[in-house]
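Section handout 9: paired folding examples.
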Amino acid sequence: MPRITGDHLEPLAVSPRQACTLLKIGVTRLYQLLRDDELESYLDGRARRITMDSIHRRITRLLASASATGPTTEDMPQPRRPGRTAEHDNWARPRPKPQQDEPGRT
């Protein structure tokens, strides 16, 4: 059933591009979710549509699993990848000084 908020009527289904925007994921990940039956879709002619109900169910599942596992990842500092230190980051690397010509040399 469509949701109505004030003057806004939420669509029953959206395009893959809109679903990617709503879920903040890429197209490859979207089609993985479709393949794994995490999202429902149908074809309207040649246009694929993803149901908003399946998007809401996915978000509900993600929230349920996040609350079951404890604190969010934003609350916990993440370690650096193995083998990476601050010295290897581009902004920590000293830049070489440009060579200046000596007077009298041609």
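Moving on to protein 2 of 2.
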Amino acid sequence: MAAVLSHRCDVTDGAALAALAGEIGPIDALICSAGINLRPRDNSPERLELAAWQKTLDVNLTGTMLTVRAFRPSIRPEGAIVTLGSVAALRAMPWADAYTASKGALVALTRSWAVDYSRDGIRVNCVCPGPVDTGMMAGMIEQHAGAQQLQLPQQRMARPAEVAELIAFLVSPGSSYISGTVIPVDGAATAHSAGMPFPRRRVPGGQAAG
């Protein structure tokens, strides 16, 4: 790739995205990476705040759709789109219903777009990271009383560069026949349990099972 550019934009603002697309001009690849996780405001149905539910869907799901809608006409034939899902779309992730719903929907949309845009040779794939050593993940770890709560076969979180390497491959000529795929980058977490702690079962008397 000749150049990789990143841009800041409110992905919930379709007009702003369209203006940015016009400013940038033709592109070879689009990476939809905007996302939020609002736990603990995002939680189980009886605990989550509706405002957090709506905001999460607005950014993670609608924001990705608006980004694709704005930039799709600028993508050159044989180009690529990469969406950012999560292991939450592939395995149960407790106490984050809005986040889980948004990422699950992105997986479904990725497959639809891979078929829709195949007529122009545009490939669409979804990368689903597990726990990654980022600021977002640091906040989640604090809620679970430390990194020891993460049950990861590789015994560590992913480094951001490890996710970026896969994205770079998916937008390169080397992946010219890969489309419609959903690829975890999780150190075998989805083969285990997505790496997240699960609720302990309640027993009569209000105590959790040991």
